[in-house]
Design a protein that fits this description.
361 residues; alpha/beta; Spore Coat Polysaccharide Biosynthesis Protein SpsA, Chain A; UDP N-Acetylglucosamine Acyltransferase, domain 1; 2 domains; 9 helices; 26 strands; 26% strand; elongated
């Protein structure tokens, strides 16, 4: 059975207090929305529709440049912010064919959940298909889910509906299980349900969540898979952005620690997700490896060293130095206090002194 995806990335994100579009805020060197697209890797979608809106051109350009080829990204624009249901309906226009006879799976997810993991989406879709559900939700549990839609279940455990915070009764507000905004549907049921949405709610918008109640009300199976709340919460402001950065940095550092890299203090070591590091590398506190930096085996980097889009040969030593788009040869010794500007190089076995700036070219 084929799987397609719709990524909702049209919002302005006013709480970020930024001229940068919310989906393009960086976490460990990668835009939030691109992290979300990478989470689809195990599903290998036939097409990924990215719904853009605010600063659509900038978002389209960055996602085109940074998305993996397997995602098969296409863009559709939501000209007016009329809710998630409207955005999903616009996203459906990116898919070929008639949805009435197509029982393929459509995964819909927000573009601001950068900590979402590929295994979680794989489990969601596998559960959806195995149970022949019309819809399957990814949910989480919090002691205080203020602001999130609550999951209302039937007596048999299936999902009856999702009630948004503004529309919930006091009893419904006591529910701890909440909607992450990540759902999958049978395409032949989703399309007609979206066309029947109304704006009869507190926000006056088309709620994607209303599709859940409509399908359940018609007797279709609506299931749920629970995931860790830390993985599924969205990023809406700079504080949440910093928390997500810390969590992803921990994951990234753990990966390299388990693959032959030594860090004297992982809490003071900063590695972007696109960096490549060889074995038996030692990273001292204050080391920042950014962009597409590549580090060869047996290097010693730091303390207080920042390399961005650099290539470092095997056995090199770099301390108290900064480099951008530079090349360091095998067994070179760089630092302390060396500046490597874009296009510069330090030859193999060379040694640089204090306060040295490498020549370009």
């Amino acid at each position: 059975m084929s799987v397609s995806a719709i990524v909702l990335a049209a919002g302005e994100g006013s709480r970020m207090r930024s001229s940068r579009p919310k989906p393009l805020h960086l976490i460990c060197g990668r835009a939030m929305v691109v992290h979300v697209i990478h989470a689809l890797e195990k599903l290998q979608p036939t097409r990924t529709a990215v719904v853009v809106g605010h600063q659509a051109e900038a978002v389209t350009k960055k996602v085109t440049e940074r998305s993996p080829a397997w995602a098969n990204v296409a863009f559709v624009e939501q000209l007016e912010q009329n809710g998630t249901g409207d955005a999903a309906a616009i996203g459906m226009t990116a898919f070929d064919g008639d949805d009435y006879d197509d029982d393929a799976t459509i995964v819909i997810l927000p573009g601001d959940t950068p900590l979402l993991e590929a295994d979680t989406l794989d489990e969601l879709v596998a559960t959806h298909v195995a149970n022949q559900n019309a819809c399957t939700l990814l949910t989480s549990v919090l002691d205080d889910p203020t602001g999130y839609g609550r999951i209302v279940r039937k007596k048999d455990g299936q999902v009856a509906r999702i009630v948004e915070q503004r529309d919930a009764s006091p009893d419904e507000l006591d529910i701890k299980e909440w909607n992450t905004g990540i759902l999958c549907f049978r395409r032949d049921l989703l399309g007609p349900a979206l066309r029947n949405l109304t704006t009869d709610n507190a926000q006056g918008e088309y709620y994607l969540t209303d599709v859940v109640a409509a399908l359940a009300g018609m007797g279709h199976r609506v299931g749920a898979v629970q995931a860790d709340a830390a993985e599924t919460q969205g990023v809406n402001d700079r504080w949440q952005l910093a928390l997500a950065e810390r969590e992803l940095r921990n994951r990234t550092n753990r990966h390299w620690l388990l693959n032959g890299v030594t860090m004297l203090d992982p809490r003071q070591t900063f590695i972007d997700v696109n960096v490549t590091i060889g074995r038996d590398v030692t990273l001292y506190p204050g080391t920042m490896l950014q962009g597409s930096t590549v580090i060869g085996d047996g290097c010693e980097l730091g303390p207080d060293t920042r390399l961005s889009d650099c290539t470092v040969g095997t056995g090199a030593v770099v301390e108290h130095s900064v480099g951008h788009s530079a090349e360091i040869g095998n067994d070179a010794v760089v630092g302390p206090y060396v500046h490597l500007p874009a296009g510069s190089a330090v030859l193999s076995n060379a040694t640089t002194g204090a306060f040295y700036t490498a020549p370009v070219g």
